[in-house]
């Protein structure tokens, strides 16, 4: 028996599912941090001021990222739910 | 004026269409065809009542004044939705498992079903929402005004007022019709939700259409639009960091706490899984809603003369460019935003007002308490309807009194800040078991006082409700209590200041008062229920039902949930308890379920109080209290699991021991069987061998001797054959491989045949057989050959063993215990008691070995009868040997 070749048994799907839920939990934190970035921008009286168009592009990109990420995670969660019930049967 | 008439017409058609949609949805739901009503898309769209007229029109004005700050109003809810796993999931689960009807119901349920708290929350919600409703009415009338002035028809103030009244009346009517059609235990309103979803699509379409028109029609594409934005007066990022953060927090908090949001998010939720879709779809909706706001604002600032109200750019930009159809669509969008908000807010508030204020008062004025007869449903419905009308009218009144001026425009955030005061109590209640009613009460009071003092009163403008000197010097000259600079910390934005202090002090006083106080048992139970909703979803609090009168409960339940519903519920419960009739025992279990059903109609606190009036007070059992202590509960559960497991193991061990004993016994039986079989085989073999040796070895045998010896050999061989036949028969029967040859025949015929066969060859001592032909006149459907074999054996035994001088056999046929019995009774000395137990065993023979036979006959009989699903047993106390053959009833029945 070679110790290198024996992998301790872990239920792969439920492990994946738990990490998926961790990701779902983290997503709003990521969103809050990214949307907190404008707090660091220089105010209008400073020299290299952030233009509104750039701000719009940044904020809406974050939004799109969160929506797409959230949608992808939600779909995966559904699939892993289905697998879970499948295996319980 | 023509366009104005068209506008009025379109408006009326649109309203009629909404009525139709709501009506169709109600119908579909009633007929059970409403699967599509329960789709996650509808749920997501219904959440969009968050976007009111304030956001539809106001966002553009907001952007024109303060740049991108308006985005905070959408970012907060987006974060809350994306973080659904943290909070919303739990909130929705609690709402469903506890049959929560409103946010006041939730808070009161969590803190020991306290009605005081429910009343407080209701009052605060009404205070916070009324200005908001006024704002919606204003937006509808002003947008109408904008339209008409564009066509040169200035409306007078009174015309505006009557417009607002008309809109208010229409909305109240709609809400009453579709919001109080029935008293649903789940408090769901398909018609309202469907109408709201349709309106959500309309307002999204309207805003997007205006946006697309502005970007591609007026500004000349995305690149040009961005350039125009940068060139405009809001072209540079200028944001106070504290406002950005605070407003995101505020809008997120309001999203959770607004009564109307709670209504659509938790109460109207059909399926927890819908939240999963809404978690990304609703942020997407908000994103699209806010996407075109800045372009519209910038183009409006460019296009329209200076000084025009930016709040209505969505309307005025298409009008100014002569795009009437687009303006009409935009008007409908704003109209939709306003109406859907008012409808749901009125619905949510009316539920709260009627459940927590009107019903308790009405109940206490009823002299007979909750058990008097008479339908209470109409009272509930009436109070709901009046509450709806009152709430909408209050909004109208506020609109008239405030003059509909700019004071209203700022009320949106003020209102948000007001309801956000629920947040600490709400979040603390579902995550912290230590939160108590006292804490909640103190926290809410402190929060609201500070909110009113620092934000609401000053919002009416200095000098109206708060004097200028008080703003500058504080009340009674106490400088550290200045409404907009607590503790002398000036320079904070007034809104940020108010939110910061109110939420901070609210949370702190809630926390400290919770730490100091001691909760009642019911409170602790509810706390455990809410906080650990995913572990156990039942209500642990139980009623001491011994005093309860089920009939009184029935009377009360009929009045609240309707006669048929109540009777069904009671009958179901009675059946569950294993009782016949309609009235179940008032077990704690049943009372709990009843309370929850009632709570769906009148709210948890009222339902609790009503049952309390009849039952005479809740009791908290020791088990309930144990459940509160989580560790204890877990340990108990663990130990009970262990107990169950060890019991199971003991059971298995017992079974194994039994199996082992049986195996040992069978092994012994097999040994003795083998020795008996060899013995039985050996005896005839010995004589066969001996006589065949004589025949072979001696030549001087006479013919008679030869005949004698060979017939002995023949007899012995026959006996061997018979023995082997019997053994074979027995093994076939025992192994269950025997095929039964089912056929019909009369019992009489079988007995005739059996008697004849059994007595063949009997000589002078042939026994007399007594039978009753009438009894035997029966048809049987079974394996007749096998049955006849049993009879032959029994008769043969009687013939062989009966020791009477005048042997006589009586065959009795009769019925006993739904079975057919045939008794064979002879007049001999019978079988001694000690031997009765073993006669059916193999190779057992009674008495002297005067007759030949291997002793397998009765064993075979028993096996046959087992196969025929009957039995054969010894019948003691009949004067002689008696055997009873029992046949199952259907054997005789089937043939009749």
Write the layout of secondary structure elements.
The complex is a heterodimer of chains A (about 90) and B (about 900).
Chain A: H1 12-36, H2 52-88
Chain B: H1 2-30, H2 40-47, H3 53-56, H4 58-66, H5 72-82, H6 88-97, H7 103-110, H8 115-150, H9 157-179, H10 190-218, H11 222-231, H12 241-257, H13 259-267, H14 274-291, H15 293-303, H16 313-320, H17 324-365, H18 377-401, H19 411-419, H20 422-431, H21 437-459, H22 468-473, E1 481-482, E2 485-486, H23 494-516, H24 521-531, E3 542-543, H25 550-561, H26 563-576, H27 588-602, H28 604-615, E4 618-619, H29 622-628, H30 630-697, H31 703-735, E5 742-746, H32 747-759, E6 768-771, E7 779-783, H33 784-801, E8 808-815, E9 819-826, H34 833-836, H35 857-867, E10 871-874, E11 882-888, H36 889-893
Helix pairs in contact in B: 1-10, 2-10, 2-14, 4-15, 5-12, 5-14, 7-8, 8-9, 8-16, 8-17, 8-18, 8-19, 8-21, 9-17, 9-18, 10-14, 10-15, 10-17, 11-15, 12-19, 12-23, 13-17, 15-16, 16-17, 17-18, 17-28, 19-21, 21-23, 24-29, 25-26, 27-28, 30-31, 31-35, 32-33, 33-35
Total discrete domains of chain A: 1
Helix content of chain A: 55-70%
Instruction: Output the structural class of chain A.
Output: mainly alpha
Sum up the overall morphology of chain A in one term. elongated
Number of strands of chain A: 0
- What separation lies between the terminal Cα atoms of chain B? 95 Å
Order of SSEs of chain A, N→C? Answer: HH
The quaternary state of the protein chains shown equals heterodimer
Number of helices of chain B: 36
């Amino acid at each position: 028996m070679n110790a290198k070749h024996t992998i301790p048994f872990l239920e792969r799907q439920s492990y994946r599912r738990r990490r998926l839920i961790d990701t779902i939990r983290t997503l709003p934190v990521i969103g809050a941090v990214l949307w907190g970035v404008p707090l660091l921008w220089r105010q209008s009286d400073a020299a290299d001021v952030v233009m509104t168009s750039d701000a719009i592009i940044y904020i809406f990109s974050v939004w799109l990222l969160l929506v797409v990420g959230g949608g992808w995670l939600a779909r995966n969660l559904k699939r892993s739910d289905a697998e879970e019930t499948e295996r319980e049967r | 004026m023509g366009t104005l008439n068209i506008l009025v017409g379109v408006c009326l058609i649109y309203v009629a269409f909404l009525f139709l949609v709501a009506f169709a949805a109600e119908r579909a739901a009633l007929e059970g065809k409403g699967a599509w009503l329960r789709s996650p898309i509808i749920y997501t769209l219904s959440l969009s009542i968050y976007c009111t007229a304030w956001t539809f029109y106001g966002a553009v004005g907001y952007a024109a004044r303060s740049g991108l700050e308006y985005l905070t109003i959408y970012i907060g809810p987006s974060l809350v939705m994306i973080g659904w796993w943290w909070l919303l999931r739990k909130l929705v689960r609690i709402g469903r498992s506890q049959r929560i009807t409103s946010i006041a119901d939730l808070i009161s349920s969590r803190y020991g079903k306290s009605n005081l708290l429910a009343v407080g929350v209701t009052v605060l919600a009404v205070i916070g929402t009324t200005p908001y409703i006024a704002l919606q009415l204003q937006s509808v009338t002003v947008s109408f005004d904008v339209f008409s002035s564009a066509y040169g028809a200035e409306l007078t103030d009174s015309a505006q007022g009557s417009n607002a009244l008309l809109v208010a009346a229409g909305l109240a009517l709609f809400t009453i019709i579709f919001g109080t059609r029935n008293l649903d235990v789940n408090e769901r309103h398909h018609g309202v939700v469907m109408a709201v979803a349709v309106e959500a699509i309309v307002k999204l379409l309207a805003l997007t259409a205006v946006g697309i028109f502005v970007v591609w029609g007026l500004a000349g594409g995305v690149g040009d639009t961005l350039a125009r934005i940068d060139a405009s007066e809001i072209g540079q990022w200028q944001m106070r960091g504290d406002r950005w953060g605070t407003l995101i927090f505020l809008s997120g908090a309001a999203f959770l706490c607004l009564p109307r949001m709670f209504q659509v998010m938790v109460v109207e939720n059909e399926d927890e899984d819908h939240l999963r879709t809404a978690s990304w779809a609703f942020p997407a909706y908000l994103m699209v809603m806010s996407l075109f706001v800045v372009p519209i604002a910038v183009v409006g600032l460019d296009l329209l003369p200076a000084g025009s109200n930016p709040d209505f750019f969505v309307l005025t930009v298409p009008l100014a460019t002569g795009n009437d159809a687009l303006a009409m669509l935009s008007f409908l969008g704003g109209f939709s935003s306003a109406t859907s908000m008012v409808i749901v807010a009125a619905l949510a508030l009316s539920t709260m007002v009627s459940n927590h204020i009107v019903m308790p008062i009405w109940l206490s004025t009823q002299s007979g308490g909750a058990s008097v007869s008479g339908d209470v449903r109409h009272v509930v419905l009436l109070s709901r309807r009046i509450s709806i009308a009152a709430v909408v009218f209050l909004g109208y009144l506020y609109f008239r009194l405030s003059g509909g001026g700019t004071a209203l425009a700022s009320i949106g955030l003020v209102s948000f800040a007001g309801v956000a005061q629920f947040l600490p109590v709400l979040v603390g209640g579902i995550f912290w078991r230590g939160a108590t009613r006292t804490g909640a009460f103190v926290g809410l009071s402190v929060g609201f006082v500070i909110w009113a003092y620092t934000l609401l009163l000053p919002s009416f403008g200095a000098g109206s409700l708060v004097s200028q000197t008080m703003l500058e010097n504080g009340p009674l000259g106490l400088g550290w209590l200045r409404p907009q600079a607590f503790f002398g910390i000036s320079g904070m934005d007034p809104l940020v200041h108010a939110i910061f202090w109110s939420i901070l002090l609210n949370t702190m006083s809630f926390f400290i008062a919770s730490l100091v106080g001691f909760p009642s048992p019911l409170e602790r139970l509810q706390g455990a229920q809410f906080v650990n909703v995913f572990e156990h979803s039942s209500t642990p609090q139980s009623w001491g039902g011994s005093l309860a009168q089920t009939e009184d409960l029935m009377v009360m339940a009929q009045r609240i949930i309707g006669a048929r519903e109540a009777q069904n519920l009671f009958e179901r419960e009675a059946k569950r308890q294993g009782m016949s009739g309609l009235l179940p025992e008032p077990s704690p279990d049943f009372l709990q379920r009843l309370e929850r059903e009632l709570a769906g109609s009148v709210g948890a606190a009222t339902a609790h109080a009503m049952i309390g009036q009849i039952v005479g007070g809740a009791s908290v059992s020791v088990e309930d209290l144990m459940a509160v202590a989580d560790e204890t509960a877990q340990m108990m559960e663990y130990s009970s699991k262990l107990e169950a497991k060890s019991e199971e193991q003991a059971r298995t061990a017992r079974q194994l021991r039994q199996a082992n004993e049986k195996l040992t016994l069978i092994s012994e039986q097999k040994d003795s069987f083998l020795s008996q079989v060899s013995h039985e085989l050996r005896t005839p073999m010995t004589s066969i061998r001996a006589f065949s040796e004589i025949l072979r070895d001696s030549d001087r045998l006479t013919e008679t001797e030869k005949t004698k010896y060979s017939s002995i050999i023949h007899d012995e061989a026959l006996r061997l054959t018979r023995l082997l036949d019997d053994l074979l028969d027995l093994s076939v029967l025992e192994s269950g491989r025997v095929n039964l040859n089912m056929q019909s025949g009369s019992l009489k015929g079988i007995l005739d045949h059996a008697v004849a066969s059994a007595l063949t060859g009997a000589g002078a001592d042939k026994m007399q057989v007594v039978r009753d032909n009438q009894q035997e006149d029966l048809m049987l459907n079974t394996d007749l050959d096998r049955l006849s074999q049993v009879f032959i054996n029994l008769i043969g035994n009687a013939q062989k063993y009966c020791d009477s001088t005048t042997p006589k056999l009586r065959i009795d046929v009769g019925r006993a215990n739904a079975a057919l019995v045939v008794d064979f009774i002879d007049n001999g000395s019978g079988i001694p008691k000690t031997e009765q137990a073993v006669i059916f065993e193999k190779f057992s023979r009674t008495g002297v070995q005067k007759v030949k036979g291997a002793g397998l006959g009765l064993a075979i009989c028993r096996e046959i009868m087992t196969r025929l699903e009957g039995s054969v047993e010894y019948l003691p106390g009949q004067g002689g040997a008696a055997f009873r053959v029992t046949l199952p009833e259907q054997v005789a029945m089937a043939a009749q």
